[in-house]
């Protein structure tokens, strides 16, 4: 009996070890993959300069579309302005993620990957429990509000090549853009759009941040190259301070 019990225990031990080894070798996923978004109602692509322009100057246009069942993709061309460091860019993106999670009414949990558009890496964030919300971060360098260097303007008007902030947290994965490659990348991003939002391309310099103007002008030119009729909504930025209110108190709180 004692020998039989020993054999049984040995076999049980080996079986437990085999299962443990199997589970160790199997890939482990922290969460289920995010299901694809249902965009049959429409896709709004919003292109702005900085990581708050969409919330300050475009919304509630974005949240209205989301509530109507649309997919919303927000493109931030600029990572940081005024010679900001990369940790500041990451901090701004953290705040933006929280804002959109609250807008969608779901936890602040995102699937973050490096997507490729026209051969260029773009930091892509998809809201895990509401995959209709997507953020695309190109992480270009931004300019100064008044005076000083405006990298986006140098790229667009003088066809200079700009190196972006890195794609990866360890400081790797940076790429460079010129006018042609930025146009190609943005064109691919805009391709699925049912409607496009951006800022005001025709505002007056020195009343406006130059990054806002160039982001809107670039978006307009690239949208026109799509060769199809896509509605574009332009949004006034700083000059709204002198205009009559056009939002209710409830809309403002959103």
Give the CA-based shape: globular
**Helical residue percent band:** 25-40%
- Structurally, the number of domains stands at 1
Proportion of strand residues:
15-25%
Strand count, sense and barrel status of the largest sheet are: 7 strands, mixed
Put simply, the count of helices is 8
What is the CATH-assigned architecture? 3-Layer(aba) Sandwich
Distance between the termini: 74 Å
Could you give the order of the helices and strands?
Answer: HEHHEHEEEHEEHEHEH
Query: What is the CATH topology classification name?
Result: Rossmann fold
Task: Determine and state the CATH class.
Answer: Alpha Beta
Unreliable stretches (pLDDT < 50, length at least 5) are 1-31
Q: Going across the biggest sheet, name each strand in turn.
A: 3-4-5-2-1-8-9
How confident overall, as mean pLDDT? 86
């Amino acid at each position: 009996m004692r020998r039989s019990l020993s054999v049984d225990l040995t076999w049980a031990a080996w079986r437990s070890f085999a299962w443990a080894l199997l589970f160790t070798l199997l890939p482990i996923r922290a969460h289920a993959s995010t299901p694809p978004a249902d965009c049959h109602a429409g896709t709004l692509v919003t292109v702005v300069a900085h990581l708050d322009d969409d919330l300050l100057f475009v919304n509630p246009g974005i949240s209205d579309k989301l509530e109507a069942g649309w997919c919303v993709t927000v493109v931030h061309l600029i990572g940081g302005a005024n010679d900001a460091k990369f940790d500041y860019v990451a901090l701004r993106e953290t705040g933006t993620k929280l804002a959109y999670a609250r807008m969608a009414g779901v936890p602040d949990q995102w699937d973050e990957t490096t997507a490729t558009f026209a051969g260029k890496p773009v930091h892509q964030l998809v809201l895990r429990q509401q995959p209709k919300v997507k953020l695309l971060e190109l992480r270009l360098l931004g300019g100064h509000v008044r005076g000083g260097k405006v990298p986006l303007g140098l790229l667009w008007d003088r066809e200079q090549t700009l190196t972006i902030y890195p794609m990866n947290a360890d400081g790797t994965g940076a790429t460079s853009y010129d006018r042609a490659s930025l146009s190609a990348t943005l064109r691919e991003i805009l391709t699925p759009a049912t409607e496009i939002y951006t800022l005001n391309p025709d505002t007056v310099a020195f009343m406006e941040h130059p990054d806002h103007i160039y982001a809107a002008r670039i978006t307009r030119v690239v949208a026109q190259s799509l060769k199809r009729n896509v509605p574009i909504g332009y949004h006034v930025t700083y000059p709204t301070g002198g205009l009559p209110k056009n939002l209710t108190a409830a809309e403002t709180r959103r």
